[in-house]
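lol forgot to send this yesterday, sorry. struct tokens for the thing we talked abt
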């Protein structure tokens, strides 16, 4: 046993050194370099309707996307996100709404999210391209994605300027008016509300042998609006809560892995919509 003690001591020292190095303050910077990344995302959703219609649907969606980065120029890198594959299982999301699942998939595979990102994950000029063929439901979902990129940063996370360590917190806020006015197809007017999001570094972990920062994010907000239903305006509201974690590569700044749970409630007077969603995403070179 004594013969193994020096080896065990060396191993213990190496582990301790690695843990100490990761516990030191460090900057989170987004620097993936030019080239192609692939993202896979799995989402389980449960949605229920009550009021003027009673319906419940469950659906699982597996999505594959390509993220193509251009060369860095003056601190900004162009990116293009395209959907390469979508598989849906469960209830037909277009049932009773005039939509066809295959049309939705075909439309989403044509559209692109384009923009520019800097080393803190901040974005500019984010927009949809080739989105003319999208159905209204898909259009709303893509507009919400664009607003998340625009207001919160690349994949919803802009890094702080200073070094971070365990316990470091920062926050961002989304304007719910910008989030909802386009995604609700113009039905909502006089939208008011904010969606604050807080971020916290919970620790440093290895993912696939590479050091990462584990960042918790939490959003909780509410918006109010009016809806014109033909016979007059009806007051409505939407509340949303999101809790999740992202594992950020210390080498590239990419969110290599993320998990989240979302609870959404929309009240339009005669109709209430409740949605629960669990998502897991992975990004690799």
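and heres what i got for the seq, position by position
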């Amino acid at each position: 046993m004594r013969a193994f003690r020096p080896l065990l001591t060396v191993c213990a020292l190496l582990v301790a050194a690695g843990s100490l190095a990761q516990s030191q303050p460090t900057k989170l910077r987004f620097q993936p370099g030019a080239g192609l990344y692939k993202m896979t995302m799995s989402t389980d959703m449960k949605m229920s309707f009550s009021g003027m219609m009673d319906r419940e649907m469950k659906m699982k969606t597996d999505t594959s996307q390509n993220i193509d980065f251009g060369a860095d120029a003056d601190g900004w890198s162009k990116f293009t996100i395209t959907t390469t594959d979508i598989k849906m299982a469960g209830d037909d999301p277009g049932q009773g709404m005039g939509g066809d699942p295959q049309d939705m998939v075909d439309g989403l595979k044509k559209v692109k999210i384009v923009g520019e990102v800097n080393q803190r994950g901040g974005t500019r000029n984010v927009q949809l391209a080739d989105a003319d063929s999208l159905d209204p439901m898909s259009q709303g979902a893509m507009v919400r994605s664009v607003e998340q990129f625009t207001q919160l940063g690349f994949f919803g996370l802009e890094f702080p300027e200073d070094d971070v360590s365990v316990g470091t917190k920062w926050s961002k806020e989304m304007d719910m008016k910008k989030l909802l006015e386009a995604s609700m197809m113009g039905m909502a007017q006089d939208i008011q509300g904010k969606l604050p999001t807080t971020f916290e570094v919970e620790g440093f972990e290895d993912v696939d042998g590479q050091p990462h920062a584990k960042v918790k994010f939490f959003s909780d907000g509410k918006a109010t609006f009016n809806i014109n239903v033909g016979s007059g305006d009806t007051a409505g509201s939407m509340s949303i809560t999101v809790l999740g974690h992202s594992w950020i590569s210390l080498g590239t700044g990419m969110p290599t892995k993320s998990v989240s749970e979302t609870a959404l409630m929309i009240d339009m007077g005669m109709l209430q919509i409740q949605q629960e969603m669990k998502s897991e995403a992975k990004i690799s070179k």
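Residues 6-21 have pLDDT under 50 and may be disordered. anyway ping me if u want another try
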